[in-house]
Structures are given as structure tokens and as C-alpha cells.
Amino acid sequence: MDAPPRKPYSSDLTDEQWDLVKDFLPPPVPAGAPRTTDLREVLNAIFYLLANGCAWHALPHDLPPEGTVRGYFHRWRRSGLWQAIHDALRRQVRERAGKEPEPSAGSLDSQTVKASRTARTRGYDAGKKINGIKRHLLVDTSGLVLAVVVHSAKIQDRDGARLVFARAKLLGPWPRMQPVWADGGYAGQLIGWAWNLCRWVLEIVKRTDDVKGFKLLPKRWVVERTFSWLSNYRRSSRHYEYWDETGEAMIHLAMIHVMVRRLTNEKSLTGTT
């Protein structure tokens, strides 16, 4: 007698969302024992961990075992599968919104977060007074991630931006990309460096001196919204990962979850589409 289906979690993939990603997953290896693991449940377990911020060993018992889930997660991280799924879905979201598949402009910024004792990388951000890491994002005009680099918080934004631009150049080319908007912390020699490397115009959007407190800056606010989307996933509340590449994969997975919900008109984790 088959066991009754488990009660779904709010982070689970719906049938329609599963259809969007299942064809990206590798088929079973012809040699060896038949695959017995349900890959949809593996993804559900990873999204559960992301949404609820639990440790790997704290995954619910009605999901696949911790070792199985971690094994698939890291195997697919090393193979570049998360990046491939993410980039394909980003193009679909852009086309559904009536945009070209590839971007014409971007926005750049970093977010400093605390690192746990399990993190291999950490550093002190004197400006934010935080010991941890920085998540450096380049996003398109819709706030969808183009490139992400996780690095020590002690690295200045200008130097971290060089890592992001170098990563973006590898992931591109994006021949339509021209302006990349950033705040005053990226001014200086980085502007010429970005042009020489990528042929992109780094435009500095400065706030006026007479404005006090927080203010959304034109064209730059989209990257702030992306950081807000990531904050809906409790695993992103701080950096728990030993490898920086794992932290980058977690960001790609969070955005995959955001995008499949958008493509299927499903409400986000905060209750909005």
C-alpha cells in the first residue's frame, strides 16, 4: 500500500513550476543502479532550507535525507546547473514582460551581512561595522540578477565591483548593455576600468547633500529591491556557507524560486506576485 502524500510546504514547487525546471535536470546515468530519488523532492528540500533558514540536518523527515539533498546541491553547483537554470528563467521572465531576452542596462551595489562561525570567508566592514561578507550584485532594470560575487566584507566596493564586472564579462556577452548605474562609492578609476574591460558606461547616481536619511535614488533602487527579495529567504539573513561559491548558488536558487513563481503568477513568500 502506497504511503499517503505528504502535506505540502509553502516553498514547494507546484506542478506548473516543476514543469519549468525539470527538463534542465540531468537524466539518470545509464550504468549503475536505477535512480530512486525524486528530484522534485530534492528541489523542494532545498527551497525549504532557503525559505526557512534551517540547517541541512534540520530538514523535515518527510523530505529526502540530508546527505542526498546536499549531494545533489553541490554536484549541480559544481556543474554550473544552478547558473544555467537561473539564466534561462531570467530570459523567460524578461520576454514575458515584453523585454529583449538580454539586458540593455544594469545596476550595481553590495550588501554586507554577518557571517556565522561556519563561514570560511569573513572580514570587517568598517563603514557598516559588520564582521562578515559582501554580496555584490549586478542586476538588470527589472532587478533580475545578472552576476553575483560573494567576497569578504573588508574588500572595498570599488575592488569588489571589479570582481563582479569580470564575472559578468565571462557570463555575457551582453552587446546591448551600455549604462550601469551605481552610487558614489564606485566613482573614480573604476569608471575607466569598466569601460576598458566590458565597454560599459558606469554612471554614478549621487544623492543630493541636502537630503537627510534614506532616499531611493533614481535607476539604482532596483538593486535595493533585489536585496529585499533575497531577505524574504531566511537562509539569506546571514552568511552560513563555508564556500563563497555556495553562497552565490544560494542567491541563484532564491532568484530561481522568485522567477518560477512570477512565471506561474504564484504569490511570493511575502504574499505578493
Quick overview of this protein structure:
The protein is of the alpha/beta class. The protein has a domain of 138 residues: Nucleotidyltransferase, domain 5 (2-Layer Sandwich). Helices cover 39% and strands 14% of the residues.
Short descriptors:
single chain, 273 residues, alpha/beta, Nucleotidyltransferase, domain 5, six-stranded mixed beta sheet, 8 helices
Written account of the structure:
This protein has 273 residues and is an alpha/beta fold. The protein has a domain at 102-239: Nucleotidyltransferase, domain 5 (2-Layer Sandwich). The protein has helices at residues 15-21, 39-52, 66-79, 81-96, 157-171, 189-198, 221-231, 244-263; strands spanning 106-114, 123-125, 130-140, 145-152, 179-182, 201-204. The longest helix is centred in the last third of the chain and has 20 residues, at 244-263. The relative contact order is 0.16.
